[in-house]
Specification:
Blueprint: H1 2-6, H2 10-15, H3 21-37, H4 41-55, H5 59-68, H6 70-79, H7 84-98, H8 113-123, H9 127-134, H10 140-156, H11 158-167, H12 171-177, H13 183-196, H14 201-209, H15 212-223, H16 230-243, H17 247-257, H18 260-265, H19 277-292, H20 305-317, H21 320-330, H22 336-350, H23 354-361, E1 364-367, E2 370-373, H24 374-384, H25 388-402, H26 406-413, H27 421-430, H28 436-450, H29 454-467, H30 471-478, E3 481-482, E4 493-494, H31 495-510, H32 524-536, H33 540-547, H34 550-561, H35 567-582, H36 593-603, H37 606-625, H38 638-649, H39 652-658, H40 661-667, H41 670-692, H42 713-746, H43 753-761, H44 763-836, H45 843-881, H46 886-890, H47 893-903
Antiparallel strand pairs: 1-2, 3-4
Length: 904
């Protein structure tokens, strides 16, 4: 506005050099008073323009307006809708109050008025609903400044604004409708919705149901797809917000809108050899959207893996692999950032998806007759690219293809057929149809002729994926023998031995001329050691091949004992040496597991050896925490975005030379770190077991303990004594081993010399204490056994006691019965004697006694009859009351009784 420029610098003219907060407070207060209480419209508009000018120049003015002025400005927006100029001025002033002021330098602890004012304005009752209502105004600038105001509020106070918009009926609907407005309004609405949908799942779902997917893709099509400007980038940023952490929206996009319009953005149009800045950004953003559909994040629910599988299936069915291969492989003129991102998307598409892997393995690139499989083309990228990040991206494709794919691993391993050196060189230079295995073996051996280990290390990384968790492939590769580069160097040698040579050669490259290693050489050791660790894991034949040459073990011990090697190198070398013991099935003395453990104990020491694992894990844990660094979104400004891309390409070497751990985090990824942790625990257990329980050095044959026929007793006793002496020597050796092992394991890697002396002096005491502790534990166990036996004995005694008491009671009952029988028998015998003696019984006495008994029984019967008669009388009275005929009921009772007596 012209009035704004007219009043620029008005504060300086009014206050001169005195810009104190108090002066701003008074000045802002006077302007607000003129706006709220002024009579003349022109004066009020002038005050609004002055207020707008002062808030864009001073933090103090912004704070002063935020403290007292929001009600006045909101009143203008609410009550003066007809005065378009005042409404515009109020909106511009509010936007200026929330916007930061760039003075060139700012203090870290400086108060940010925009944050404070955003919080205050959002707390004003009805402010957000008032702003949304202004979007329906016909004036273009009112809608434009309202959108800017809402965007500023969301930038500074997102959570409260999101909650407020959700609580307003049709709040999101009116915002989506603004996407169909004029171009400038539409673009501002895209920015507003991008801020609104960050970490707001409910708003994301509502916008999708409002049809925002269709509007986004319509805008992208209108703007020209990937050839469009920054508006396409804004649309893609909004699309990422809608899909991130939101499985339901991903499913709606797949089932309702479809992936065709998304995939069409990846199609290279126009001049394919030119990638403008904004086109590069748009393609990267599109592939980031595809990436969100391909792998779950930490917030994905456990049951949602099927959603990712479905997304991968549909995307491959829609031929997205063709577009990604065009960008990642065939378009060698494309920026490195695009090629790397395309390769990462391919890796995500084939990861843990059998059908996609099968489809990918059949794709061929190029034009007849010069066509080759996509896998061969990606291997060429790995061996030839000069960019480390492109190598890592291409390597991730093979990792995803080989993981949980034993058939694919065997197919690739079957092509590993050595070719004569001249023929291989000719094939590489002239024939694009070179087999995969021949190309890989050439990469593994190219350092012999070219003096460069980089291609060898890259090929070794691919070979490690081919062999991982597949013993058939490991044994297949073990059979490969390579010709010496020159006849004078000897005959053919196994591929494993050649890889160990390259490992030693990497050490010489690292210390060449006493200078610091180059960035490329920093990952030579980890990659080759990773290959060997995977190769020897759970494969005794590979272990046997490795230890066939004793100097391999000697080199590993030197590498572990080196003070200049990186913790990664030392730790992985220790793991490799541990595998030689843990998975060793050899029986030859000097090559068996016990010999390897003795070598570790004598040359390194168990304490020092195990401490290498701890040092490695500290670094591995550090890199595993950064396996998935927070994504840095591309800036909206094309210039700023391209600076990020240029950093990706040109500044990579400068950053990597000072800090190569992020690159190693890609090589030693989280999956490999977890594998190493489990393997390390197994190696510890196996080494301690082997060292503590060595195999007997004497083959004990039971026949040797028997006297041979014809052998004199003196000779037999002498032979037995020699045998016992050998056994005693072995027992002493075993006790010495156990004592040394206990002492070594009790030490820590960080013990100082004085602490070490104290620990050494007290080692025997600790062993004795441990022995006493074991004896005490054994005695305690025996005591518990005795207690259990005592309880069992007491239980049995109690049962016997109860049985005895029962038997005693039964015996007493039998005794009483016997006494009673004796008494009766005595009475009967007495009566019998009296009868035999001729005496007569007292008949009168007997009659009297019988009569008395009969009378007593008769009296009892009369009493019972009286009681029954009284009951009959009571029942008869009751029946009469109930209206029953008692006589009729009693008629047949006597007759029935007589009949029953007769029957009896």
């Amino acid at each position: 506005m012209d009035l704004v420029s007219k009043y620029q610098g008005v504060v300086g003219r009014v206050f001169g050099n005195d810009n104190s907060a108090a002066n701003y407070d008074r000045y802002v207060e006077r302007l607000l008073d003129r706006i709220s209480s002024g009579v003349l419209s022109e004066d009020r508009r002038t005050a609004m323009v002055e207020l707008q000018s002062v808030v864009v120049e001073s933090h103090a003015a912004q704070l002063a307006l935020g403290a007292t002025g929001f009600p006045v400005l909101l009143g203008v927006l609410k009550d003066e809708r007809d005065d378009t100029e005042m409404v515009r001025g109020a909106l511009e002033t509010l936007v200026g109050t929330l916007s930061p002021i760039d003075h060139g330098r700012s203090l870290k602890n400086e108060v940010q008025p925009g944050l404070i004012n955003s919080d205050l304005l959002s707390r004003e009752v009805g402010s957000i609903s008032l702003f949304l209502s202004l979007l329906s105004e016909e004036d273009f600038y009112i809608r434009y400044y309202t959108l800017q105001l809402l965007t500023a509020l969301l930038t500074n106070s997102p959570t409260r604004i999101q909650e407020a918009i959700l609580s307003i009926p049709r709040g999101t609907t009116c915002l989506v409708d603004m996407l169909m407005d004029r171009e400038v309004i539409r673009n501002e609405t895209l920015l507003l919705l991008t801020y609104l949908t960050r970490e707001a799942e409910e708003i994301q779902k509502i916008l999708v149901f409002e049809g925002v997917f269709e509007k986004i893709f319509s805008i992208i099509t209108e703007e020209g797809g990937s050839e469009g400007g920054v508006v396409v980038q804004d649309c893609l940023e909004l699309l990422k917000n809608l899909l991130r952490h939101n499985p339901s929206n991903q499913e709606l996009l797949r089932e309702i809108v479809g992936f065709d319009r998304l995939i069409s953005i990846l199609k290279v149009r126009g001049n394919s050899y030119k990638f403008a800045q904004q086109k590069t950004i748009n393609l990267l953003s599109t592939m980031e959207v595809v990436g969100l559909l391909l792998h779950p994040d930490s917030q994905t629910e456990p049951g949602k893996e099927s959603l990712i599988i479905a997304n991968k299936t549909v995307l491959v069915q829609k031929k997205v692999l063709d577009h990604l291969l065009m960008l990642g492989i065939e378009s060698r003129w494309a920026p490195v950032a695009i090629r790397c991102k395309a390769l990462q998307c391919i890796a995500d598409l084939v990861s843990n998806h059998k059908k996609n892997r099968d489809a990918f393995s059949t794709i061929v690139l190029g034009e007849e007759p010069n066509v080759e499989s996509a896998l061969n083309s990606i291997l060429r990228v790995i061996l030839r690219t000069s960019n480390t990040k492109e190598f890592l991206a291409a390597d991730s494709v093979f990792k995803s293809f080989c993981e949980n794919n034993p058939e694919g691993q065997r197919l690739l391993a079957s092509t590993l057929i050595p070719q004569p050196q001249p023929m291989v060189k000719a094939l590489v230079e002239e024939d694009v149809n070179m087999p995969f295995g021949s190309m890989l073996l050439h990469g593994l051996t190219s350092s012999e002729s070219e003096g460069d280990l980089e291609s060898c290390c890259r090929a070794a990384s691919v070979l490690s994926h081919v062999m991982k968790d597949n013993n058939q492939c490991k044994e297949k590769v073990l059979q490969i023998e390579l010709e010496a580069p020159m006849p004078s160097f000897g005959g053919p040698e196994p591929l494993m031995h050649r890889m160990v040579k390259y490992l030693a050669l990497a050490s010489s490259v690292k210390s060449r001329d006493g200078k610091a290693s180059t960035f490329e050489s920093t990952y030579f050791h980890p990659i080759i050691l990773k290959l060997l660790v995977i190769w020897l894991f759970d494969c005794p034949k590979a272990v046997q091949c490795f230890i066939d040459l004793h100097h391999h073990l000697t080199y590993l011990i030197e590498l572990i004992s080196s003070e200049i090697s990186a913790p990664y190198t030392v730790g992985l070398a220790a793991i490799l040496l541990g595998e030689c013991a843990a998975y060793n099935k050899a029986t030859d003395k000097g090559k068996n597991a016990l010999s390897i453990v003795d070598l570790i104990s004598q040359r390194i020491g168990l304490t020092s050896y195990f401490s290498k694992f701890d040092e490695m894990h500290k670094r591995l844990l550090f890199t595993s925490e950064g396996q998935n660094p927070a994504h840095k979104p591309l800036a909206r400004s094309p210039a700023a975005s391209m600076s990020d891309i240029e950093d990706f390409e040109e500044n990579e070497a400068n950053d990597a030379k000072s800090n190569y751990e992020p690159m190693l985090a890609k090589i030693l990824d989280s999956q490999f770190v977890e594998f190493i942790k489990g393997l390390e625990a197994n190696i510890r257990e196996q080494i301690v077991s082997i060292y503590s329980n060595p195999k007997s050095q004497v083959a004990v044959v039971p026949a040797e303990l028997e006297q041979v026929a014809g052998e004199r007793n003196e000779d037999y006793i002498k032979r037995l004594r020699q045998f016992v002496e050998k056994q005693c020597i072995e027992i002493q050796d075993l006790l010495s081993r156990n004592a040394t092992l206990a002492e070594d394991l009790s030490k820590t890697s960080g013990v100082t010399s004085s602490q070490l002396d104290r620990k050494q002096s007290g080692s025997s005491d600790r062993i004795q204490v441990e022995t006493l502790r074991r004896d005490l534990h054994s005695t305690s166990q025996q005591l518990e056994i005795l207690k259990a036996e005592k309880i069992r004995a007491e239980t049995e005694a109690s049962a016997y006691r109860n049985s005895a008491n029962k038997l005693e009671s039964d015996l007493k009952s039998l005794s009483d019965a016997y006494n009673s029988l004796e008494h009766v028998n005595f009475q009967l015998e007495k009566e019998l004697k009296e009868l035999k003696s001729g005496g007569t019984p007292d008949i009168e006495a007997i009659k009297a006694e019988a009569q008395m008994a009969s009378e007593a029984e008769l009296n009892d019967l009369l009493v019972c009859l009286g009681q029954e008669q009284s009951k009959v009388e009571k029942l008869s009275g009751r029946l009469i009351e109930l209206g029953e005929d008692v006589d009729k009921l009693l008629e047949g009772i006597g007759e029935e009784t007589e009949v029953q007596d007769d029957d009896e």
